[in-house]
Amino acid sequence: MTSNQEHKGSGDNVGRDKTETHVHHYPEGYQKPIGLDSPKIQVSKLPHTNNQLFGREDELAMLDAAWDSPRTNILTIKAMGGSGKTALMKTWMGNLARDDFRGANAVYTDSFYLQGFSENTQASADEFFDATLQWFGYQGELIPSAHDKGLKLAELINQQRSLILLDGLEPLQYPPGGAMGGALRDQGLKTLFQQLAAQNKGLLVILHVRILLS
Question: How far apart are CA 144 and CA 165, in angstroms?
Fold first, then answer.
C-alpha cells in the first residue's frame, strides 16, 4: 500500500509526495470542550468489509498525521483490491469517532465503485455532486456545468473543517495505458480536487487502485 500527501500551495497535481512526522492523539480521558458543536457526519457509504485490521499502526499514524497537519490537503492511498484499504479506513474512522472526530465540523464518505464495471463503463459523478452539494447545504438553482459543480462543492466544503473520504474512483478514470491512462474522466471531480489541493481547511482522503492523475 502506498500513499501520497498533497499540501497547501503545491499546485494542481494530486499525489505529490510530502512527509509529515507530527502525530497527535488526544490524551486518555479526553472530553469535548463545553459549547463545541458535534460534527455533522455521514459515514454509511464505505464498502462493507468483514476484514479485521492487524499490524497497520504505521498507516494509522500516517492518517492521524495528515489530519493534524495544517499543510496536508489531500491524502491518496493506492493499493490493490483486497489489500485492506477499507478496513484501514473503517478502523481509523472508528478511532476518530471515539475522539468526537478530533475537531472536524463535517465528515462525509462516498464510494464510486460499481460492481462488475468494465474499462468501457461510462460512469458519471452527477449523482455524487447532487447528493453531496445538498448534504453540504446547497439550496440554489441547478448547476448545469460540471466545472461549476466542482467549484461550488469545494467552496461549501471549505466553509468548515471537513473530512472527506472518497473510495473507488476507477469507473471515473481512463483505463491504464495511453496518454490518458489514470486521468479522471469527470471535469467536476478534476475541479474539486484541484480546488481542495490549493485550499482545504480539512482533509480529502482518496482510496484507489490505479495511479490517479488530475
Answer: 25
